[in-house]
Design goal:
Layout lengths: L1 E6 L2 E11 L2 E10 L6 H7 L3 E8 L15 H9 L3 E5 L9 H17 L1 H8 L6 E12 L1 H12 L7 E4 L9 H4 L69 H8 L2 H6 L6 H11 L4 H11 L20 E6 L7 H13 L4 E6 L12 H24 L1
Parallel strand pairs: 4-5, 4-6, 6-7, 7-8, 8-9
Antiparallel strand pairs: 1-2, 2-3, 3-5
């Protein structure tokens, strides 16, 4: 555990929110430095709680940690609005599966609502600032958007709002996940040689459980922290990913087997069954989706946002570039339509001509600060205020 005043604008604190396989899974809190509560505040409110936004990093569920692809633009704006920003690690595929990630998401919210304030008091004894467990929203980027969807589906207390930045998982039943690719399909990048990733492919690296079972397997082999790494300028391939995990999701998408690793269903291959249905059916979209749903074992449906009871979702904001080739905009369009049909307060903001990770570009603040970043932060702040 650590605490530092990294900035005049916030205090940062690292805490473990659970232990898995004998290893802690961590989160970072970014607490507005100027938000200290007095004893009279506590007496008046019953607590000195601040609202918070829980954020999940991207990386295709296979790589990254709580500081990877960090959205400084969002953290800064929320801290200025007196909102705590929380960035959390979660276990990574493989050998984990979506079931392990879902367990981490649920356990994280349970920790924040029941135990976090005791640790805040222990590590920040000079302030009475606390987290309000009834005023939490959730956000995520790319695969972190999927984690945010899982929180909307399963976390308790339920988040007051959901922000997805070009999130994956709005529609898993598409060629992006199921088709076997034979030419570049992902941001124009080269095709990968599966032989170079043998230790990360089934069956050499089991996905944490026997196929078809949602129970956890070898927790000791699971990791929740895989830092980004690139070859140095002196390398023959400068700037190229040095960590194989950075390319795993692209490999699984290339092979059309991402859902096997996500669910743990390798034998028989869930992806192969869904691919066959997708390519051979002449049904309309509604009938095809219903048929494909019937092929997914019941114990895995909890991992598919499109099959959730969507009418219970909190307000949602989906932001997606129209030219995204990593997570197609169809994902957000599909989920947006489903949420609208369920009567949920949902907004889809399409960013014309933008690719994946557009908000991390060097000129992103200049291009999107006033026209989008401010509005995104305001969406979360207002929903937290309304839900308090």
């Amino acid at each position: 555990m650590s605490s530092d005043a990294d900035s005049p604008d916030y205090i940062s604190l690292t805490l473990p929110y659970k232990v898995s396989g004998g290893k802690p899974i961590l989160l970072d809190l970014y607490i507005p430095a100027h938000t200290t509560s007095t004893e009279s505040d506590i007496d008046a409110k019953g607590s000195a709680g601040l609202p918070s936004v829980v954020y999940f990093h991207g990386g295709g569920l296979t790589v990254g940690n709580k500081t990877s692809w960090f959205p400084h633009w969002l953290q800064t704006r929320l801290n200025k609005a007196e909102v705590i920003f929380i960035s959390a690690d979660y276990r990574l595929i493989p050998p984990a599966t979506g079931h392990d990630i879902l367990a981490d998401v649920v356990d994280l919210f349970e920790f924040l609502s029941t135990r976090a304030n005791d640790l805040l008091h222990q590590h920040l004894p000079d302030t009475t600032t606390r987290l309000d467990p009834d005023a939490m929203a959730v956000a995520g980027t790319s695969s972190g958007g999927l984690c945010a969807y899982l929180a909307a589906m399963h976390a308790r207390p339920k988040p007051k709002a959901v922000l997805s930045m070009y999130g994956m998982g709005g529609d898993f039943l598409t060629p992006q996940y199921l088709a076997v690719k034979t030419e570049p399909f992902f941001r124009g990048r080269e095709m990968l040689d599966p032989a170079s990733f043998g230790q990360y492919t089934y069956p050499k690296m089991q996905s944490g459980r026997k196929s078809g079972s949602p129970r956890s397997g070898d927790e000791e082999a699971m990791i929740s922290d895989s830092p980004l790494a690139y070859h140095p300028a002196t390398s023959p391939t400068p700037g190229y990913p040095a960590s194989p995990r950075m390319q795993l999701t692209r490999l699984y998408l290339q092979l059309g087997v991402f859902l096997d690793y996500y669910t743990g269903c390798h034998e028989p291959s869930l992806s192969a069954q869904l691919r066959e249905a997708l390519t051979s059916s002449s049904d309309d979209d509604a009938h095809l989706e219903a048929h494909m749903r019937s092929l997914i074992p019941d114990e895995h449906l909890c991992l598919f946002p499109q099959f959730d009871s969507l009418n219970e979702w909190p307000p949602a904001l989906l932001v997606h570039g129209t030219s995204d080739t990593a997570d197609k905009i169809r994902e957000s369009e599909h989920l947006h339509a489903l949420l609208q049909g369920a009567g949920v307060d949902v907004i889809l903001k399409q960013v014309e001509g933008e690719e994946h990770s557009f908000d991390y570009q060097a000129d992103a603040e200049e291009r999107f600060g006033r026209i989008m970043f401010d509005d995104v932060a305001e969406f979360l702040v207002k929903r937290l205020q309304l839900g308090a």
